[in-house]
């Protein structure tokens, strides 16, 4: 293997390049990123007074093989000293709210939360959990998250808890999202154990083996629920880019939009605005839609499958208020779609990460997230909606949900277009068919990034690693 071109410099493309760099089999890596910065959705604003605001992900989960894998990389990059851990015992881990019927409800947790009737639910959750073990295994090879949870745990849990959860992870509609692709652990628990409850108690299946390094071990000993970095999560792609630069084997190109790729005798020819690049193999870390527009006509069947992967747009509104303004403490609150389609949720950023607050004078940082699967219905086209309208809607929500009458002292509206892929039922089959097409046509192409096998930062990094291992036929 000589030259590998990595298309897209988001966290997926950078992670794949990092793993390629670890192998002596690869002589050259070329990273092509269309925008003027690396990191994609990992995007932090750092103000000169010490405040940090996230416009994409803000907390990363340390648990499981994929969580350990990311922490091993963080350690290797020398970022361990910058980590901001949030343990399970922290109020931000214990308290998550749902805003429903015009008030905040703390989501039940622990045994007492399961035993009692906790509004907005009309019966103890333990009843639903116990009855779940008696429900027969489904026969469909995939179904919507809402249909799966209604069938196993009842409609109320699906309408409130799962509807909100899907908005708080995928900004999506649980009636349209695939249970098999969005929540594989739930799907596997039913398949292997016949029940979610038994799956949780007995384990739902094998998970990939990743040996935890010192930082991952620390996350276990100290029971971390999530973590960030002292200068914001964008420090992670920045550190990877620095590592790649230092390696001497990686060419990093910004403002290098790939316009077309065509198979050649020895691999691929990649056309940019101002020239061409040759590579033996391509790792595409582009969103599915972007890959569609650069593939040659000979890849029509692949193009058709990629076109079926929809995305949603999210308006992310960062707000800073003077003083301590929150009536409750916790991670934040979500709204089920029945309460308000436009408003997905509000993150109370100052609670898990007070280190990102301005250094002098008490402030409260919040992030309001809006739109998602309902964006067009509520706000119309992202091309015409104004920042003023989005800001007004966000501050009105803070007033109405949290009783904050004052205006924010600082705000920033980011319209994150097509930022979260939506895995609809049958997504796993479509991805399987894409990879079969690539294999059968001997295309030297790997597909990674959030469009295919998981949207979390951990999933995207881990899948970058897996693609490199498959390409090189060895562990990295
Ligand atoms: C608002 C928001 C909140 C989130 N919160 C969390 C969270 O709390 N925890 C979590 O784990 N995950 C979270 N995520 C998800 C996670 O951030 C993303 O799934 C992940 O960053 C996607 O990475 P990627 O590399 O696959 O894609 P991207 O970040 O989209 O990277 C793709 C790159 O390709 C480039 N590109 C596009 N077209 C071309 C072209 N023709 N040529 C060259 N380059 C091109 C783009 O500019 C981009 O840099 C969140 C996402 C969003 C949007
Ligand atoms: C209100 C909208 C959103 C909030 N976060 C996201 C959206 C669309 C995006 C997002 N959040 C998480 C992930 C990664 C999932 C993973 O597998 O790690 C993504 C893409 C993390 C997350 N956020 C919430 C949950 C339950 C999770 C899963 C992991 C975990 O349990 O920590 C809930 C949640 N998200 C938001 C709020 C306000 C909220 C709950 C109060 C914002």
TrEMBL record:
<keyword id="KW-0285">Flavoprotein</keyword>
<dbReference type="InterPro" id="IPR002937">
    <property type="entry name" value="Amino_oxidase"/>
</dbReference>
<comment type="pathway">
    <text>Porphyrin-containing compound metabolism; protoporphyrin-IX biosynthesis; protoporphyrin-IX from protoporphyrinogen-IX: step 1/1.</text>
</comment>
<dbReference type="InterPro" id="IPR036188">
    <property type="entry name" value="FAD/NAD-bd_sf"/>
</dbReference>
<keyword id="KW-0999">Mitochondrion inner membrane</keyword>
<dbReference type="GO" id="GO:0004729">
    <property type="term" value="F:oxygen-dependent protoporphyrinogen oxidase activity"/>
</dbReference>
<keyword id="KW-0472">Membrane</keyword>
<comment type="similarity">
    <text>Belongs to the protoporphyrinogen/coproporphyrinogen oxidase family. Protoporphyrinogen oxidase subfamily.</text>
</comment>
<keyword id="KW-0350">Heme biosynthesis</keyword>
<keyword id="KW-0627">Porphyrin biosynthesis</keyword>
<dbReference type="GO" id="GO:0005758">
    <property type="term" value="C:mitochondrial intermembrane space"/>
</dbReference>
<dbReference type="InterPro" id="IPR004572">
    <property type="entry name" value="Protoporphyrinogen_oxidase"/>
</dbReference>
<dbReference type="GO" id="GO:0005743">
    <property type="term" value="C:mitochondrial inner membrane"/>
</dbReference>
<dbReference type="GO" id="GO:0006785">
    <property type="term" value="P:heme B biosynthetic process"/>
</dbReference>
<keyword id="KW-0496">Mitochondrion</keyword>
<comment type="subunit">
    <text>Monomer. Homodimer.</text>
</comment>
<feature type="domain" description="Amine oxidase">
    <location>
        <begin position="11"/>
        <end position="472"/>
    </location>
</feature>
<keyword id="KW-0560">Oxidoreductase</keyword>
<dbReference type="Pfam" id="PF01593">
    <property type="entry name" value="Amino_oxidase"/>
</dbReference>
<keyword id="KW-0274">FAD</keyword>
<protein>
    <recommendedName>
        <fullName>Protoporphyrinogen oxidase</fullName>
        <ecNumber>1.3.3.4</ecNumber>
    </recommendedName>
</protein>
<dbReference type="InterPro" id="IPR050464">
    <property type="entry name" value="Zeta_carotene_desat/Oxidored"/>
</dbReference>
<comment type="function">
    <text>Catalyzes the 6-electron oxidation of protoporphyrinogen-IX to form protoporphyrin-IX.</text>
</comment>
<dbReference type="GO" id="GO:0006782">
    <property type="term" value="P:protoporphyrinogen IX biosynthetic process"/>
</dbReference>
């Amino acid at each position: 293997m000589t030259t590998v071109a990595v298309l897209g410099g988001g966290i997926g493309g950078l992670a794949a390049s990092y793993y390629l760099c670890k192998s002596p089999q690869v002589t050259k890596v070329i990273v092509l990123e269309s925008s003027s910065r690396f990191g994609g959705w990992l995007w932090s604003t750092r103000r000169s007074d010490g405040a940090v605001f996230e416009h994409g992900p803000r907390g990363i989960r340390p648990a499981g093989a994929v969580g350990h894998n990311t922490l091993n990389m963080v350690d290797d990059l020398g970022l361990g000293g910058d980590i901001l851990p949030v343990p399970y015992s922290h109020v931000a881990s214990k308290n998550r709210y749902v805003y429903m019927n015009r008030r905040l409800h703390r989501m039940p947790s622990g045994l007492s939360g399961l035993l009692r009737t906790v509004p907005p639910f009309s019966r103890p959750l333990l009843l639903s959990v116990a009855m779940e073990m008696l429900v027969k295994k489904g026969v469909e090879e995939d179904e919507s998250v809402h249909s799966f949870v209604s069938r196993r745990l009842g409609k109320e849990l699906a309408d409130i808890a799962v509807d909100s959860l899907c908005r708080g992870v995928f900004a999506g509609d649980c009636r349209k999202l695939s249970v098999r692709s969005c929540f594989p652990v739930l799907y596997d628990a039913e398949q292997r154990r016949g029940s979610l409850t038994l799956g949780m108690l007995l384990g739902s299946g094998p998970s990939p083996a990743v040996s935890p390094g010192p930082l991952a071990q620390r996350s276990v000993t100290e029971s971390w629920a999530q973590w960030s970095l002292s200068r914001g999560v964008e420090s992670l792609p920045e550190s990877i880019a620095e590592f790649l630069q230092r390696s001497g084997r990686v060419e990093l190109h910004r403002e290098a939009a790939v316009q077309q790729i065509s198979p050649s005798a020895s691999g691929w020819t990649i056309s940019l605005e101002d020239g061409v690049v040759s590579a033996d193999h391509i790792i595409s870390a582009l969103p599915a839609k972007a890959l569609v527009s650069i593939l040659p006509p000979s890849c029509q069947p692949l193009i058709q499958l990629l076109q079926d992967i929809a995305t949603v747009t999210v308006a992310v509104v960062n707000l800073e208020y003077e003083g301590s303004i929150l009536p409750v403490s916790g991670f934040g609150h979500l709204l089920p779609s029945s309460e308000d389609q436009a408003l997905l949720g509000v993150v109370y950023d100052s609670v898990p990460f007070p280190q990102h607050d301005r250094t002098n004078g008490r402030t409260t940082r919040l992030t309001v997230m809006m739109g998602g699967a309902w964006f067009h219905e509520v706000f119309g086209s992202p091309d015409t909606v104004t920042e003023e309208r989005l800001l007004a809607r966000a501050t009105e929500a803070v007033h109405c949900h949290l009783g904050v009458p004052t205006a924010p002292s600082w705000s920033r509206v980011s319209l994150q277009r097509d930022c979260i892929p939506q895995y609809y039922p049958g997504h796993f089959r479509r991805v399987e068919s894409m990879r079969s097409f690539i294999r059968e046509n001997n295309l030297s192409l790997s597909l990674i990034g959030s469009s295919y096998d998981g949207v979390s930062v951990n999933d995207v990094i881990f899948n970058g690693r897996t693609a490199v291992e498959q390409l090189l036929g060895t562990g990295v």
